[in-house]
Amino acid sequence: MKKALPLKGGSGGSRHGTKSPKELESILKQYFGYSEFRGRQLEAIEAVLSGRDCFCLMPTGGGKSMCYQIPALVKTGVVLVISPLIALMENQVSSLKSKGIPAEFLSSTQTTANKNKIHEDLDSGNPSLKLLYVTPELVATSGFKAKLTKLHNRGLLGLVAIDEAHCISTWGHDFRPSYRKISSLRKQFPDIPILALTATAVPKVQKDVISSLSLQNPVILKASFNRPNIFYEVRYKDLLDDVYSDISNLLKSSGNVCSIIYCLERAACDDLTMHLSQQGISSAAYHAGLNSKVRTTVLDDWLSSRTQVVVATVAFGMGIDRQDVRIVCHFNLPKSMESFYQESGRAGRDQQPSRSVLYYGLEDRRRMEFILRNSSSRKQQPSSSSTELSEKTLADFS
Q1: Alpha helix (H) ranges present in 243-357?
Q2: How far apart are CA 83 and CA 134, in angstroms?
Q3: What string of DSSP letters covers 179-197?
Q4: Second-level CATH architecture of 230-360
Q5: How do the domains of the chain map onto residue ranges?
Q6: CATH 3.40.50.300 fits 21-222, yes or no
Q7: pTM for the whole thing?
Q8: 3-state secondary structure string across 240-271
Q9: CA distance 358 to 160
Q10: Bridge partners of 105?
Q11: 128-149 b/e with 16+ CB inside 10 Å = b?
């Protein structure tokens, strides 16, 4: 474990740290091993350290987490990180702890003893935590809001970071109603900077996120989405004798490297996993039909390289910190180019040559159009909004 820097202090005890780029690079090197910042990372860090709200659009693998983890090592108090997936939080907290950075998460998977320990630390006058990961559902509860208010009143709430911020927008590819509950944070803490981060946001989504979070004159940063290290390929299902065999041959010819295969349905995940296992390929299925203990085991085995291939529904991989994914394969068509970009972008986060392989079939296209056409009608929205959203969703797919 790395020896921790003196983390308290910031700028003479103020909420806003004032570090030079060289000092920030020194922290980056000591804790994360990188010699320089990438893309718009430094600009985002300097924005929130100066007290500005910031909307940051970076590609998958672009290092969005650095934009709030570095400020946590500079600012006084606790950085609150709102994240959509428990697995994501567990993964990032484990990684931070291994680097000597005090971090924790609060979720339903935590034991009562651990939760009590975290709350005791937050209630102290001098919390040791630098980063606290929470779900949007927890942020909306009156009890946790009161705890945040106490932190804020003592000058110990340094920054609110909202990861996967596109989830707050009904126009985003992964809208989550629970994210709407965090929109009151600006009113509750008008002097605390808010950092909204996403790897996928068309202009309409960007505008909606900024408006929904009431970001005040935010710094808007957009990094290049060009990923030259990823080779993109389309294979036509209708021209293949056996898609499962083609995938098996693809993985074997690549040396059974770390891979993710996305399927539309749980049954396809299970069937493909069984086929790959029979072919001697180390693989496991991951989807909502499995209990949380099994999903956690699958994730841990994949992260530690005990399993090479995960066959999963689309939620898998969001925020997961594995750099050496060499192949991302789509067994079915994604629902939009945004979804495809985010999912395929999980390959080659270490900037090494990687592959994105999409299997295209006419039957898959008809099935996805049917799903998208009917999904909006099930939402509880006025008919005009439902129709507009349905048309937008279909347009994104087409």
Answers
A1: 243-253, 266-278, 292-303, 337-344
A2: 6
A3: GGGGGGHHHH-TTS-EEEE
A4: 3-Layer(aba) Sandwich (3.40)
A5: 21-222, 230-360, 373-397
A6: yes
A7: 0.75
A8: CCCHHHHHHHHHHHCCCCCEEEECCCHHHHHH
A9: 37
A10: 133
A11: ebbbbbbbbbbbbeeebeeebe
Token pair 């009590």 is found at 116
The total number of residues shown for the chain amounts to: 398
Instruction: Write out the two tokens for 101.
Output: 């950075």
How far lies 76's CA from each of 104, 124, 131, 245, in Å?
A: 17, 14, 11, 55
Write down the residue that tokens 């079939």 correspond to: 361
pLDDT (tens digit, 0 to 9) for every residue of the chain, 398 residues total?
Answer: 444 444 433 333 344 457 899 999 999 999 999 889 988 999 999 999 999 999 999 887 778 899 999 999 999 899 999 998 787 788 889 889 999 999 999 988 888 999 999 999 999 888 999 999 999 999 989 999 999 999 999 999 999 999 989 888 877 667 778 888 888 899 999 999 999 998 877 788 889 999 999 999 999 998 877 788 999 999 999 999 999 999 999 999 999 899 999 998 899 999 999 999 999 999 999 998 888 889 888 988 998 899 999 999 876 765 566 889 999 999 998 877 778 888 898 899 888 999 999 999 888 877 777 666 676 555 444 444 444 444 545 445 44
Measured CA to CA, the distance from residue 92 to residue 134 in angstroms comes to 12
Q: Quick check: helix, strand or coil at residue 204? A: helix
Helix (H, G, I), strand (E, B) or coil at 6: coil
Euclidean distance between CA atoms 314 and 316, whole angstroms: 5
Topology match between the domains 21-222 and 230-360: yes
